Amino acid sequence: MLKQLYPQCDVSRPLEGTYLDLNLHQQAKAGDIYIYANYISSLDGRIALYDADLGEYAVPKSIANGRDWRLYQELAGQADVMLTSARYFRQLAAGKAQDLLPVGSGEKYADIKHWRKNQGLKPQPDVMILSNSLDIPLVALEKVQDRKVIVCTGSTDKAKIGILEQAGVQVIRVMSSMVETSRDPSASPRVTGTLVRQRLIDLNYRSAYLIAGPQVHATFIQDACVDALFLTTHFTLLGGTQVSGLVDADLPKAQSLKLISSYLDAENNQIFQRFIYVK
Ligand SMILES: NC(=O)c1ccc[n+]([C@@H]2O[C@H](COP(=O)([O-])OP(=O)(O)OC[C@H]3O[C@@H](n4cnc5c(N)ncnc54)[C@H](OP(=O)(O)O)[C@@H]3O)[C@@H](O)[C@H]2O)c1
User: Fold this and answer.
1) Average pLDDT over residues 178-197
2) Ligand 1 center–CA 215 separation, angstroms
């Protein structure tokens, strides 16, 4: 059971359904989209540590857990599209990432699949990948071939775009007027949150689940383009010097958030909090 701490104290509820009841796919105003992010973090604010064995950043096993994963799945269940990074697909191809994208694989999550069907949603959310390098292994894309895959990029590399299109991917060149000042004149303009949000609206998506790491999160926050943050804080100190936080980039100004709900999961030594980004 979870103990609700805010807005009402001393109310207990089962874990299952805690986020599925939120109907995030119906939160957007007409002609808009609702974008929500989700992270599990340690008490000292780490979402990933560098794993020397993997040669990659990864979510430490000491904080990852099945109860958080259940809520991750409930959030995925309400998404029209999942926003992720090319790096995730590179890790997936190298066998170094968890298979994060399918909703409800396994009996435990069958109710979420059923819920999606009842809501008239597609069996699986579509996938949008942010990438400038366009280094997205086709072998990893095969894992999501049952749905629409879109890549947003500032790159003009025709050869790489052609390979992705050949594999059935829709590549959207996100032209940015905000070309970053770069020492490398051949560098592609980075995709901005405002432009991606607009493309998502143009594609008629109503809810988008941001599951990427700190760079993609920063891309959206920099343009005030995220609506809600779901944060699991596990009561563990991870330490480390090669670490990732929620946002590993400069922000134009400090981003304030407003707490909407808070649940203590004493059984698993963690707290589940939902915030909205103050715009
Ligand atoms: N604890 C958690 O809840 C949680 C959640 C998510 C991720 N993580 C962890 O965090 C680590 C990093 O995750 P991630 O790789 O998804 O991180 P990320 O830092 O968000 O993504 C990095 C990649 O995304 C692309 N990208 C980001 N912003 C872009 C922009 N504005 N324009 C174009 N491309 C952009 C780039 O791809 P190209 O290089 O192809 O250009 C870049 O290499 C991983 O270890 C992951 O496991 C933890």
Assistant:
1) 70
2) 5
What atom of ligand 1 comes closest to residue 132's alpha carbon? 41
* Mean pLDDT within 117-122: 96
Tell me the C-alpha to C-alpha distance, in Å, between residue 261 and each of 22, 155, 223, 230, 232: 11, 40, 25, 10, 12
Contact 239, 44 (CB under 8 A): yes
The token pair at 158 is 């025709």
For residues 34 and 80, what is the distance between their CA atoms, to the nearest angstrom?
10
CATH architecture observed for domain 2-277:
3-Layer(aba) Sandwich (3.40)
Quickly tell me which residue has 């400038």 as its tokens. Answer: 132
**Helix, strand, coil share (%) of the chain residues, nearest 5:** 25, 25, 45
Q: DSSP 3-state assignment of 61?
A: coil
pLDDT for 270: 98
Nearest by Cα to 273 from 228, 232, 217: 232
* Nearest CA, atom 13, ligand 1: 213
pLDDT at 182: 47
Q: Where are the domains of the chain?
A: 2-277
What pTM did the predictor assign? 0.95
CA of 14 to the centre of ligand 1 (A): 32
Find tokens 């540590």 and name the residue: 49
Residue of the nearest CA to atom 34 in ligand 1? 131
Binding site membership of 58 for ligand 1 (Cβ less than 6 Å): yes
Torsion angle of alpha carbons 247, 253, 259, 262, nearest 10°? 20
pLDDT score, position 185: 53
Separation of alpha carbons 221 and 55, rounded Å: 28
270 lines ligand 1 (CB under 6 A): no
